[in-house]
Every structure is written in structure tokens, then in C-alpha cells.
């Protein structure tokens, strides 16, 4: 078993007819992900990449009852509706790539989907990959290799960077989850780490945080409470960022008493989690831990 | 996006939240008219889209017309936290009996809207949160039913209100919550919310609207642009995120996380980033060119460090953008590039032909950038 | 409270719902200018706050300016369902391919908002509901999450939409739902919502706003008053509910149910009510006096039947009100009273002294009123 | 047992300090209803009719844990909040006298209170009386007498009228519920009749309907389905009302395909329910039924 996506993943792509949705659908299919159908309102009956397009997820699900996962490329104004639709169709994993969704919309849609028992990853995220098995996302998969280290990250390219550095050292990954950088997200850091903690095919978890919010502090607290049993290695981006500045994503805002890099690093250290100062230290720390565990 | 105080107060008034009588002026000469209308003493408040204005000297009390004129002159010449003062809100000074704090914002962890209230207003909430967290009451709001009047009243009692004040507090909180929901706000805040001899009143009123929701509130599109300064404004128009800092190594990355990590690495090896510049996902050569040009034109930048991990972004496009910028710009500066990912090989070739030092490792590239910055200096 | 079509369409436009280009005119002379702006043919639509206007001759097509002028003249002279026409909305006639029906209203039984849609628009929904109930799709809306886009699309497919029409339908439904919620509406309706060669468009657009929520939408206070006619307007100002009917026995009761029952009893014994007048709860003598006077002044009323069951309302106050009206008014008419309940005894005495026939039984009082009406006639 | 209110009813009055709330509190207390406290925001600490006033229902409930019922006289703009407050305090019966509440507010508050397990009666109603036991409402109680006939009514004064006529004939009432005339109400006709159907102290149920809505039609359908076992006698006010006219209360509107008097009378007759043409026939029909049942 790996986390969230694997050989049994059957995907419907919401927004498959758009340029971006189509490009990444093709990439995912090349990687071996089983995409069965696409959904674009008003374009039901068309075909993209040899897959049928439906007007609603419900229709797709009726045609392909084995669908269990959706990936959403719908433009920001309609993305929250797409999440609600996927949840109503009974899909259990909903990966939201779309960025720029109004936060009040995300709040409404994510809460609803969760109340229906769905796991929402994102929005504004690169998705989920279980190397060698399936990819439901937009990451350049060539930098990921199968293995036993899990990655949970709030950042996109930084995830690729860390995976790449691990891969170069010969350390493969069980699953990498890009949880997204928006203020309100579905699966959060603590939940993602807990999923990996329960996964028998994951030995160690790399957590890539960034400034803003208190996700890292909450994870550290959960580790301190003994809720996570596997070793965790962390990196927090943005130590050099001055307080009160917006650094691109909404997620990277320091304000309203939310967490600075210092507070996050301190919390991790107090929970016994080794923290890398810069990305290239991550493979060192992972290697060290795996050796301690006798896994390397 | 921060609204200016007077814009936020216009909304407050529409929702029946009492605010002090005020007049907006755009030059010192208008201050006398404002005083004629309001009476003395008055408070002059610089209208800048940023918090912490009071501490930065943007709010002053004037007891007579001469003093008011002088303060107005001084404020209009000032920059507050980098923002020029284009307008001043002149308000009748209130007779304050007590200052409270009240705001609505998002509780990320619990995916809810939350009301924050304190009997100790006036202070920056971050400081209060640090120094006296028990003085802040946090009321989570159930999304299915929204703000409950009786829970607001319970909070009001906890911060020591009773009688008419308790009722006003309830009314104001209900209005603020409605504003929060109606305007896709990230924050609606009154600090201080004051008990005055004229009743309870929002002396200050702040609103931050979700940038992603501006399409639903087109009346604020202009406000959004105002918030950006100088080169940041140009950057925003060209589709990348740009924040100026005070170092000398120009940073270009893709993705907020990687760009921040690039700054961290530069810092780790002893350098000082001059900026944060995220070219975003899937950037083409034109956008990269514009990004590099912004840094070439920034006199503080001595070296440019481009760190790209190509996923959707093609390394070749990034390389072509860098080369084009160097060709077009009259200013020449050393550039260090680290370009990995999709179309890496072509990218490498293009940069090598242009004589731009290229690294496979982020650390090595950062070290070189730091070395070059010291050399130039 | 019914908004006029043009008022409702202003709101529709604000919420990005396409409506035909139109010009509001207030006299026939303005019709040429409207045609110059819009082109021919045009539709002229009388602006009256009531449904069923089309059937009552309030909507007409004009193919040339002369015809348009004639129609305008005629409409301005008309009363439509009792409402004078103060303005006409002149609209460019649309090239209609298909007419749909779409509305949002309250589902009382399930305590929900419900969306009603049909592929067969243009007809009165009541008739459609009677004659072809299966043609109306009913979508209940979960209050916790609101209108779901995909459910709207499913309804759209059921009424035969696809492609761009399906998307327009979704957008328009979302906007209408938002209007319904934002404006405290009892009804938001487009009938027909038409597929035209210009895309999907709300040819007609109707809104009823909850009278009890007008305090939240003060911009419509004037509209509310406009809805009342003549004596009804006076009645509303004086705090009672009044509706004119076409019989000759004036009815005054307290409470809508008892007042309707009074009408039923009069009718049962062969009389015809001239009106419905509910003095409401706890009426004092002044309000009763005004109510009696309204009926005294109505030439159609031959007899007045006052039926009061006093709970909060005191029988003595009612009696004093009746007597005062008779004293003040120059018009004299027979009055039959049946006054039971709180302060019954004093009430009785006052009426007896004034020589007003008094009954303990509603039936006996009704019979006497019917007898008197026949006698007067 | 009687329905909803009895000797065990313990009442908090929301809006007790107002003229109207105070007057009716006094009336209820005179009738023997156990009012323990009042609530008016901002007036906590005062006393009215010898009862303490609190700022919140929660405080009243803390002081008097035996409270189980609220009656609301709060002005229309705050009445929905008052309902939500009573429900959150765990009160099981909430009687809403206030008229003129915006219907969207009622919708929100009534749904919430019901989800918390409370029975809401009203708004815009005269309340509930179990003659001789307790009155939580504003009806002139002198026209009610203890007995075994239940009354469910959408109309205020018409309820008093019918109770009075029954009383004059010597037919007492177990409980009379004025469910209110607004488009959205809490306890509806069908639910109220079902409560009475289950009450061992009620032999027969008088239903007083009026034009507008489809409550009477739904009750007739429930009777037809055999869901109500006790005899029902009905009167529908408004047979003479022309369609499309507003007759005072929002409840008395005929529009949007909702029920005319004819449709309601027809539905009752088809369900075997005798329908009075005018109020004075109600006691006749009741007497006749009771005789048939051997109860008179």
C-alpha cells in the first residue's frame, strides 16, 4: 500500500478539455495513471485523448462506477462548484490543481466535501504521486523514484527539488503529497503526515513547510503528543523573508500572529524533529535517520 | 488587498456601524474646511493601505487649526511604510472611555471564520497575542448557521460589557460578520472599537479583501493596484510576484517555496537577497525576460541568481528569456543560473553559448552568486 | 412586495444576467427616442407591480414608430389589474428560439428554498403546474451548502439544454439564487427565460421581496407603498389590512382568520362582502374609528359588520371607536356589531347606548347584516 | 398527559421587559404557568414581576436548570437570533409570538432549532394552551376549558372563537396549538395533529385551516395514508376570498399554485374528514363525532 493514489486509482479529470487540463492528462496517462473520463459542462459527448467527456461527474460515474478520484483543472471561479460536484458523485479523493480560488469558496467547498467523506488535496497544489504506481497531479515525474520515503509539502517546485535531491542520492519515495499553499486547504500537514505514518510502505516522512499559518507548529505538537511514530525530517522555507511581506502565494504571508520561520523551526526542534537549514541538507538528514533505523 | 480606512468606513456606515464624523482631504488647504465642519479637536489620519500606521507616525491629534494645517502638510510629504500619502481622513476626536478590539478573520487550522475580541484594544493584536493571549477571546463560527447573537453577547460579557454597550457590541459584531461574508474579506477589524460619550464607535476600521475574489467586487480593482509600489506594480502587471528587500543579490525562482528556499540558501552562504521574484508556473521567455530586466534596472542588485526547477516551465524558455534580457538591457550585471528540469539540455546549451555560468547544484550556484556580489562591491 | 420589471431587471444586470436592451419611458412622446436607441421591432411593457400583466393586455409588440406611439398612448391610459401605468419599458424585440421557465421560491412544507424550472416557459406557472405538472422540475436546495452548480446542470439537461445553453442556464440560475438570498426575496422568476439568437436572456424578470424584510432594503420602501391602491394605501398607513372586494357588506374583523371567517359567514347567509378589513391585534379606539370611517366613505358599502373576538383587543375600545366614527362621519350607514371577549360588558353597554344592534352569535349578526343590506338595496 | 405544555412546563420569557412581553407574562402567571425567568440582552440583573432578568438564555438556564420552554416576544429583527439562542440553551419547546420576522430569518432559525431537537411553535402565533394546566401564549384563556378535544389552528382569533363555541357547548379542550400563519413555521399542521393523535388525553382533533400553502392538503394525504387514527374535524377560512389577493397575514395568500379553499375542502372530504362551512358548524360536527365514538 502507498498513500492516497496507487494502481487502483481510477481518475476523472474535471476540466479535461482545457489546454492545461489536457496537457497534464496526457502526462498522467503516459505515467500510467488510469484516467477513464473527463468532465466539462456543456461539452458532454466530445472525446479528449481517447476518453469520453461528460457534462457532469455523476454521468461519468454512472458510466464508470470504478471511478474513485478526481483531479480538478477547472478555472478558479468554478472550481469550488467542481469540488462539491465530485464529492456528491461519491469520489473519495479530490485533487484540486486550480489556483486563485476565492478563499470563502474554498472554505465552503472543502468543508462540504469533507463532510461527505472525501479527501480533498489542495487547492493550488501539484497533486499526489506514488512513484511507479500512479500520479494524480502536475509534477515532473521524472525526478521521482519508487522507494520508502514520504514527502508532505506546502510548496510545488520545492517538492520537485527535494524529490530530485533524494533521487540523486538513491533514496526513493513512497508517496509525495503537495498539500497546497492556500490559507484554506483540504488535507492539511498533520493529516497528510498521519496518513503516511500509517502506511506500511513508508519508513520516514519529509515535511516541507513554509512561513505563514500554524500547520508546522500543529504538526510538531502532534509529534510531541506521540501521535506520529515514524521519524520526521523537516525544512521550512522563508527564514530570510521579512515579516509582513507577501511572498507570492497567499500561504506565504506572515501576519495576524501566524507563524514565523523561527517559531516553526523551534517547534520542530522541541519535538525532536531534525530541521534542515537549506534544501540540500534534507537528503543528509534523511540518510542519517534511515541509517539509524537500519534501513540504509 | 487592504482597503483604505475611509473606504472601509464607508462600508461600515452602510452596515450601520457607528464611526466618528470625518472629512477626507487631499491637500493641506482643505483642513480648515474639515475643521469648520467637524469642530475641534480633530485627528488626522494618513490614508495608506497598510497596518501599523499609527506607530509609523501616520495618526496625529490637532487641537487648533494651525496645528492641524502643519500636521496635514507634514503627513502629505511623508511616506508611511513606503506608501505616499495621497489623502488624509480628518475626524472629530472622540472622547474615549474604553478601547476594545474586535475582528473577523479565517481560522486556517479549523477551516472556519473566527471572531476575535478583546477588552484591551488599541494595541497591535500580534503584540497582544504574544504578551497577553488570555486577553483575546476567540469565537469560532459554525458555517451552517453563521454568527450567533447570543454567543457574541457571551463574548461581550467576558470582555466586561453590559447594558447598552453589550447591545451595541452585538449589533456591531453582526454587521462586521455580514461585511466579512459579503465582501469576501480576509480580515474585518476595528481597533480600537471604542466606548465614547457618543456610544460605541469604530474609531479605526480595516478591511482586507481576498485578492482572488476581486472579480466579484470590481469596484475595488483600483484599490488593489494602489497597494503595489513602484517595481512591484510593474511586476504584477507582467504576471510575476515581486517584493523588494534590502540586500544586493537579485533572486528569480519559480514557485513561492523554491524562491524562498533560494533566498534562504543565499543567506546561508553569507549573501543578502535584494528581492523575492517568483515568475510563477509555466512562464515563457517573455515573462522571464521582463523579470530579469526588472532586476537589471534595480540599482541595488549587483548579481542576479536565477533558480528554476522546470516542471511545466521549460528550462529552454527560461534560458531564452535571460539571454534576451541581457541583449535588450543597456545595464549589464553578472548572472548565475541554475536551471533543472524539463528541457534542461536545451536550456544549458543556450546559456553556455551566451557565456552565463551554469550550475547543477543550488548550493554551488548560491555560493558563486555570493562570491560575485562581494567582488562587485 | 412586487418590484416593477425594470427595477428587477436593474438588479438582474448587476448580477450579470443578460436582459434585452431597453429604455424606460414615462410618456408616449419618449417612445421615438427609445426606438432610435433600440431599433425595431420593439416590445412595450406596462410597468405594474402585479403578475399576469401579459394576459391583461399590458405587453404589446410594435413594428413601426406609429404603432409604438399608439400602443404607448393606449397603455398609459389603461389600468392593469387596477394599477395605473406610470411607465413603460420599451425593449428590443428578441428573436426567440425557445422559451424556458426558471424561478426560485420558498417550499413551505419542506422549509427550503426551491428552484423551479421548465422547458415550457411563457405560460403562467400556475396553469403549467395544473395542466402539465411533469413539465416542471423542482430542485430543493440544501441550506447548508446552497445551490449546487452540478444539480442546476442536471436540471438543465432534463429540460433539454446542452452546450453553451447549459452553461448559460447554470450561470443565470446561480445569479438568480444569489439575488434571492441577497434581497430577502419570496420569489425571483424569469418567464420566459429565452434562448434567442443573442444567447440566453431573461425576457421577463420578476422579484417579490418579503415585506417583513424591507427594513434591510430601504431602497424599496417606496416600491412597497406603490403596490397599494387607493383606500388600501390609507388603510396600510393606519395600521390595518384592507382589500377591496365587490360586494356591499363592509367587514371588519380582528385577525386574518376571523376576518375571513366573517366573510365566509356573510357569504353563507346570502350576503356579499365589500371588503376584507383586519384591524390587527390590540387595536385601540383610534384605529377602529379609522377603519369604520374607511367603510363609511366607501359608496359600495351598504351595511357594516364588525366582528371582534377580544383577546388583547378590548371590546370597550372597539365600541368607542365605532361610536366615534359614527359621530364624526357625515355619512350614516347601518352597523351590526358582534363583540366578544375582554371587556365585553363595557363594550356592550357603549354600543347599546349608541343604539347599535349587538349580537352574541356570529351567525345571527351575519344574518342581520345580510337582511339590512337587502333592505337598503 | 396533554400536548407540549402541562404542569411540568417551566418557562423563560425572551423579551420579558417589553410592555407586551410583560403584560402576557403576567397573564400566563395568573393562569398558573410556571415562569421562572426572563431574558433581555443588556438588562441582566433587573427584575420583572418578581422574576430575575438575564442577558442570555444560557445564564437563565444555568440558574434554573429545570427550564424547558421559552416564549419569545422579542422584536422581529432579533427574533430569529432569540430562537437560535433558546435552541442552543437546550430548551425543548420554543413558542414564538413575534410577528413580522423576515421569512429568510425564520427559515434559518427554525431549521437550526429543529436540528437541535427543539419544537418551535410559530412564529406569528398565539401559542399553546392546555386548559387548566398551563398556557404558553397570548390567548384569552377564559374561553378555554379543560376537556378532551384538541385544536390545531393557523389563525389566532379564530382559535379563540372555535374554543369559545366548543366551551359554550360544554366541550372542553385538551390542548390548543396556534401554529401561526407565516409561510415558514416550526411545528406544522401535520406534525401538530400527529402529536395530538398520540396523546391519550385527546379524543378528537379540530383543525382550523386557511387559504394559502398546502398544509391542509398534506394533512388530508396523511389521514388518507392512515397515519392519523383519531377523528379529525376541519374548518377552512377564506372560501370567499378572491384568488390572488393578500388577506392580511402572509399565510393568507393564494398564489404560486398553492392551495385554494376548494382544493383544501376537497382534500379533506376525500380523506373522510367532515368540513364545516362556517365556524358555528364546528361544534355540531364535533358533537356528532363524539357521539358516534360514544364519548358524549
UniProtKB/TrEMBL annotation, chains A, D:
<comment type="function">
    <text>Succinyl-CoA synthetase functions in the citric acid cycle (TCA), coupling the hydrolysis of succinyl-CoA to the synthesis of either ATP or GTP and thus represents the only step of substrate-level phosphorylation in the TCA. The alpha subunit of the enzyme binds the substrates coenzyme A and phosphate, while succinate binding and nucleotide specificity is provided by the beta subunit.</text>
</comment>
<keyword id="KW-0436">Ligase</keyword>
<dbReference type="GO" id="GO:0009361">
    <property type="term" value="C:succinate-CoA ligase complex (ADP-forming)"/>
</dbReference>
<dbReference type="GO" id="GO:0000166">
    <property type="term" value="F:nucleotide binding"/>
</dbReference>
<dbReference type="InterPro" id="IPR005811">
    <property type="entry name" value="SUCC_ACL_C"/>
</dbReference>
<comment type="similarity">
    <text>Belongs to the succinate/malate CoA ligase alpha subunit family.</text>
</comment>
<keyword id="KW-0547">Nucleotide-binding</keyword>
<dbReference type="InterPro" id="IPR016102">
    <property type="entry name" value="Succinyl-CoA_synth-like"/>
</dbReference>
<comment type="pathway">
    <text>Carbohydrate metabolism; tricarboxylic acid cycle; succinate from succinyl-CoA (ligase route): step 1/1.</text>
</comment>
<feature type="binding site">
    <location>
        <position position="160"/>
    </location>
    <ligand>
        <name>substrate</name>
    </ligand>
</feature>
<dbReference type="InterPro" id="IPR017440">
    <property type="entry name" value="Cit_synth/succinyl-CoA_lig_AS"/>
</dbReference>
<dbReference type="GO" id="GO:0004776">
    <property type="term" value="F:succinate-CoA ligase (GDP-forming) activity"/>
</dbReference>
<feature type="binding site">
    <location>
        <position position="43"/>
    </location>
    <ligand>
        <name>CoA</name>
    </ligand>
</feature>
<dbReference type="Pfam" id="PF02629">
    <property type="entry name" value="CoA_binding"/>
</dbReference>
<dbReference type="Pfam" id="PF00549">
    <property type="entry name" value="Ligase_CoA"/>
</dbReference>
<dbReference type="InterPro" id="IPR036291">
    <property type="entry name" value="NAD(P)-bd_dom_sf"/>
</dbReference>
<feature type="binding site">
    <location>
        <begin position="17"/>
        <end position="20"/>
    </location>
    <ligand>
        <name>CoA</name>
    </ligand>
</feature>
<dbReference type="GO" id="GO:0004775">
    <property type="term" value="F:succinate-CoA ligase (ADP-forming) activity"/>
</dbReference>
<feature type="domain" description="CoA-binding">
    <location>
        <begin position="4"/>
        <end position="101"/>
    </location>
</feature>
<feature type="active site" description="Tele-phosphohistidine intermediate">
    <location>
        <position position="249"/>
    </location>
</feature>
<dbReference type="InterPro" id="IPR005810">
    <property type="entry name" value="CoA_lig_alpha"/>
</dbReference>
<dbReference type="GO" id="GO:0006099">
    <property type="term" value="P:tricarboxylic acid cycle"/>
</dbReference>
From TrEMBL, chains B, C:
<feature type="binding site">
    <location>
        <position position="99"/>
    </location>
    <ligand>
        <name>ATP</name>
    </ligand>
</feature>
<dbReference type="InterPro" id="IPR013815">
    <property type="entry name" value="ATP_grasp_subdomain_1"/>
</dbReference>
<dbReference type="InterPro" id="IPR016102">
    <property type="entry name" value="Succinyl-CoA_synth-like"/>
</dbReference>
<dbReference type="GO" id="GO:0042709">
    <property type="term" value="C:succinate-CoA ligase complex"/>
</dbReference>
<keyword id="KW-0436">Ligase</keyword>
<dbReference type="InterPro" id="IPR013650">
    <property type="entry name" value="ATP-grasp_succ-CoA_synth-type"/>
</dbReference>
<keyword id="KW-0479">Metal-binding</keyword>
<protein>
    <recommendedName>
        <fullName>Succinate--CoA ligase [ADP-forming] subunit beta</fullName>
        <ecNumber>6.2.1.5</ecNumber>
    </recommendedName>
</protein>
<dbReference type="InterPro" id="IPR011761">
    <property type="entry name" value="ATP-grasp"/>
</dbReference>
<comment type="similarity">
    <text>Belongs to the succinate/malate CoA ligase beta subunit family.</text>
</comment>
<dbReference type="InterPro" id="IPR005811">
    <property type="entry name" value="SUCC_ACL_C"/>
</dbReference>
<dbReference type="GO" id="GO:0006104">
    <property type="term" value="P:succinyl-CoA metabolic process"/>
</dbReference>
<feature type="domain" description="ATP-grasp">
    <location>
        <begin position="9"/>
        <end position="219"/>
    </location>
</feature>
<feature type="binding site">
    <location>
        <position position="91"/>
    </location>
    <ligand>
        <name>ATP</name>
    </ligand>
</feature>
<feature type="binding site">
    <location>
        <position position="45"/>
    </location>
    <ligand>
        <name>ATP</name>
    </ligand>
</feature>
<dbReference type="Pfam" id="PF00549">
    <property type="entry name" value="Ligase_CoA"/>
</dbReference>
<keyword id="KW-0816">Tricarboxylic acid cycle</keyword>
<dbReference type="Pfam" id="PF08442">
    <property type="entry name" value="ATP-grasp_2"/>
</dbReference>
<feature type="binding site">
    <location>
        <position position="254"/>
    </location>
    <ligand>
        <name>substrate</name>
    </ligand>
</feature>
<keyword id="KW-0067">ATP-binding</keyword>
<feature type="binding site">
    <location>
        <position position="191"/>
    </location>
    <ligand>
        <name>Mg(2+)</name>
    </ligand>
</feature>
<comment type="function">
    <text>Succinyl-CoA synthetase functions in the citric acid cycle (TCA), coupling the hydrolysis of succinyl-CoA to the synthesis of either ATP or GTP and thus represents the only step of substrate-level phosphorylation in the TCA. The beta subunit provides nucleotide specificity of the enzyme and binds the substrate succinate, while the binding sites for coenzyme A and phosphate are found in the alpha subunit.</text>
</comment>
Amino acid at each position: 500500500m502507498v498513500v492516497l493514489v496507487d494502481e487502483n486509482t481510477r481518475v476523472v479529470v474535471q476540466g479535461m478539455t482545457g489546454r492545461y487540463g489536457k496537457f497534464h492528462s496526457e502526462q498522467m496517462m503516459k505515467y500510467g495513471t488510469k484516467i477513464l473520463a473527463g468532465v466539462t459542462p456543456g461539452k458532454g459527448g466530445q472525446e479528449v485523448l481517447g476518453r469520453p467527456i461528460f457534462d457532469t461527474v455523476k454521468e461519468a460515474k454512472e458510466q464508470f462506477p470504478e471511478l474513485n478520484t478526481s483531479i480538478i483543472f477547472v478555472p478558479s471561479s468554478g472550481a469550488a462548484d467542481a469540488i462539491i460536484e465530485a464529492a456528491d458523485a461519491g469520489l473519495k479523493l479530490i485533487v484540486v490543481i486550480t489556483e486563485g480560488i476565492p478563499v470563502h469558496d474554498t472554505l465552503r467547498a472543502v468543508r462540504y466535501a469533507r463532510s461527505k467523506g472525501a479527501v480533498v488535496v489542495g487547492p493550488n497544489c501539484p497533486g499526489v504521486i506514488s512513484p511507479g504506481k500512479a500520479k494524480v497531479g502536475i509534477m515532473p515525474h521524472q525526478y521521482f523514484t519508487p522507494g520508502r520515503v514520504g514527502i508532505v509539502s506546502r510548496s510545488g517546485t520545492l517538492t520537485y527539488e527535494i524529490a530530485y535531491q533524494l533521487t540523486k542520492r538513491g533514496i526513493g519515495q513512497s508517496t509525495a503529497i503537495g498539500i497546497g499553499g492556500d490559507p484554506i486547504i483540504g488535507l492539511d500537514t498533520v493529516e497528510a503526515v498521519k496518513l503516511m505514518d500509517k502506511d506500511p510502505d513508508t519508513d520516514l516522512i519529509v515535511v516541507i513547510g513554509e512561513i505563514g499559518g500554524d500547520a508546522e507548529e500543529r504538526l510538531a505538537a502532534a509529534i510531541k503528543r506521540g501521535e506520529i511514530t515514524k521519524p520526521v525530517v523537516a525544512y521550512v522555507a522563508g527564514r530570510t523573508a521579512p515579516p509582513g511581506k507577501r511572498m507570492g502565494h497567499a500561504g506565504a504571508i506572515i501576519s495576524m500572529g501566524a507563524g514565523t520561520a523561527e517559531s516553526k523551526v523551534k517547534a520542530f526542534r522541541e519535538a525532536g524533529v531534525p530541521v534542515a537549514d537549506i534544501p540540500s541538507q534534507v537528503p543528509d538528514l534523511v540518510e542519517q535517520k534511515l541509517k539509524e533505523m537500519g534501513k540504509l | 488587498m487592504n482597503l483604505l480606512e475611509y473606504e472601509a468606513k464607508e462600508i461600515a456606515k452602510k452596515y450601520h456601524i457607528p464611526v466618528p464624523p470625518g472629512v477626507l482631504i487631499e491637500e493641506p488647504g482643505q483642513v480648515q474646511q474639515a475643521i469648520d465642519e467637524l469642530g475641534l479637536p480633530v485627528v488626522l489620519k494618513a490614508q495608506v493601505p497598510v497596518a501599523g500606521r499609527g506607530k509609523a507616525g501616520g495618526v496625529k491629534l490637532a487641537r487648533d487649526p494651525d496645528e492641524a494645517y502643519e500636521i496635514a502638510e507634514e503627513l502629505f510629504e511623508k511616506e508611511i511604510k513606503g506608501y505616499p500619502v495621497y489623502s488624509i481622513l480628518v475626524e472629530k476626536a472622540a472622547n474615549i472611555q474604553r478601547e476594545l478590539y474586535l475582528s473577523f478573520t479565517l481560522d486556517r487550522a479549523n477551516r472556519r471564520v473566527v471572531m476575535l475580541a478583546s477588552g484591551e484594544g488599541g494595541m497591535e493584536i500580534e503584540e497582544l497575542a504574544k504578551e497577553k493571549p488570555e486577553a483575546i477571546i476567540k469565537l469560532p463560527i459554525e458555517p451552517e448557521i453563521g454568527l450567533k447573537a447570543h454567543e457574541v453577547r457571551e463574548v461581550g460579557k467576558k470582555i466586561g460589557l453590559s447594558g447598552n454597550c453589550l447591545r451595541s457590541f452585538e449589533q456591531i459584531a453582526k454587521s462586521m460578520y455580514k461585511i466579512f461574508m459579503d465582501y469576501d474579506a480576509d480580515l474585518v477589524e476595528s481597533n480600537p472599537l471604542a466606548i465614547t460619550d457618543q456610544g460605541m464607535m469604530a474609531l479605526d476600521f480595516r478591511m482586507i479583501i481576498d485578492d482572488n475574489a476581486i472579480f466579484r467586487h470590481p469596484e475595488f480593482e483600483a484599490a488593489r493596484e494602489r497597494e503595489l509600489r513602484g517595481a512591484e506594480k510593474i511586476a504584477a502587471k507582467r504576471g510575476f510576484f515581486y517584493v523588494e528587500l534590502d540586500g544586493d543579490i537579485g533572486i528569480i525562482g519559480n514557485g513561492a517555496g523554491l524562491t524562498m528556499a533560494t533566498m534562504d540558501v543565499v543567506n546561508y552562504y553569507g549573501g543578502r537577497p535584494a528581492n523575492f521574484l517568483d515568475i510563477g508556473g509555466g512562464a515563457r521567455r517573455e515573462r522571464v525576460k521582463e523579470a530579469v530586466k526588472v532586476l537589471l534596472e534595480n540599482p541595488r542588485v549587483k548579481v542576479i541568481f536565477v533558480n528554476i526547477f522546470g516542471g511545466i516551465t521549460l528550462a529552454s524558455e527560461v534560458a531564452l528569456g535571460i539571454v534576451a534580457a541581457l541583449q535588450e538591457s543597456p545595464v549589464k550585471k553578472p548572472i548565475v543560473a541554475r536551471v533543472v528540469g524539463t528541457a534542461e539540455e536545451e536550456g544549458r546549451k543556450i546559456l553556455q553559448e551566451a557565456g552565463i555560468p551554469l550550475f547543477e547544484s543550488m548550493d554551488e550556484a548560491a555560493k558563486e552568486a555570493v562570491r560575485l556580489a562581494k567582488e562587485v562591491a
